[in-house]
Amino acid sequence: NLTDRLSRVVKTMRGQARLTEENTAEMLREVRLALLEADVALPVVKELITKIKEKALGEEVIGSLSPGQALVGVVQKELTAIMGDPTAGKLNLAAQPPAIILMAGLQGAGKTTSVGKLAKWLKDTQKKKVLTVSCDVYRPAAIAQLQMVSEQAGADFFPSTESQKPSEIARDALDWARRHYHDVLIVDTAGRLGIDEAMMQEIQSLHQLLNPVETLFVVDAMLGQDAVNTAKAFNDTLPLTGVVLTKLDGDARGGAALSVQQITGVPIKFAGVAEKLDGLEPFDAERMASRILGMGDILALVEQAQKNVDIEQAQKLADKVKKGGFDLNDFRMQISQMRQMGGLGNLIDKLPAQFAQAAAKQDMSVADKQVRRTQGIIDSMTPQERMKPELLKASRKRRIAAGAGVQVQEVNRVLAQFEQMQTMMKQFKGGKMARMLGGMAA
Ligand code: GDP
Ligand code: MG
Description:
Bound molecules: guanosine-5'-diphosphate, magnesium ion
Organism: Polynucleobacter victoriensis
EC number: 3.6.5.4
Order of helices and strands: HHHHEHEHEHEHEHEHEEHHHHHHHHHHH
Largest sheet: 8 strands, mixed
Subunit structure: Part of the signal recognition particle protein translocation system, which is composed of SRP and FtsY. SRP is a ribonucleoprotein composed of Ffh and a 4.5S RNA molecule.
Number of strands: 8
Pfam families: SRP54, SRP54_N, SRP_SPB
Number of helices: 21
């Protein structure tokens, strides 16, 4: 998965301050493969990669993130933005009652189960009076199945028989709902095993007859790539208003979510996460993005790094550099700022397990130690020495090394690092400290 893929590439990208064409090309190839592995359809993947590339180029690498982590942050954010919608977990019930919800989808997608789940949710959390009806006169026991889940949900059920026409059933149920003051009428329909012209016509005429406020396309997440064709067929036939993605409790990688979203342009509103009637959740785009990418909470990591880089402090430092006053005190402050983030090891801990291992935790703890040692060396200097590093001749260096318990070479290393940073900072305009912090941490 992406985690494994990226961890291989990440190492080659350390120490770079910005995402560029060159340093992201290889990463983007890996992202592309990961999306394909997660069963996102090929045309959708192509479109996504173009978008992600646009977003990523020029992106600054913030805080203690490496460019690899930063790119993953961009990918995750983009996927979340594509799949996310403010109407997730909500239904439009703004209609002259009863508000009608029409369910559409292939056989076995989870329509009938979802009717029960929605009825329960509407009743329990929205305090709605719900009526359900089945227009599935083809599948044996389909009507009885709906009756059972409706009873479990505590919703009213409008009985129908297999000898009736779906349109008749729908009309009668609507009439009944009006006369009995139901807030919501949920209409279950028949699905075929595949796309079928007669089925499409039937649901289209049901749609015309009922004029529903919500037309929900129910789709099985396990369909993977095949979800694309189904979604396209239903989207061409019906003005869909939302998607219910079912069976997410299975081992589907979730690529179907992205494909269906891209094909229909319609929000995924709910996720089915169990067979039971309480197994319905508002669709969570961020979680789905993680699932598709196969990784832990990268976004939290990105946010943490952003929070911890004190922009104001950075600005002051940048001003100081411009006036030529950047000294070892400032250098030390920066190092401690990095340590406030909990050290590199701590950040790495927030990555998914495989990633953390692959990113060579050992490297990180070595780097952490290095940072602590650097701080110790600067602490052994007098305030005057910190302000004027040019005072540091051999004897002073020996004294500092002894004080910090290190070799003189180590003191020289710190001074070289400081000089390097001083030069680097002179090249930056004000407010670009984040980049430098990125460079330091990597
Ligand atoms: P329909 O043909 O579209 O009406 O599909 P059903 O509602 O009859 O569901 C088909 C099968 O999928 C049934 O065995 C359901 O219990 C199961 N099912 C539906 N939704 C979910 C879900 O979110 N998770 C799991 N694990 N099973 C589900
Ligand atoms: Mg059914």
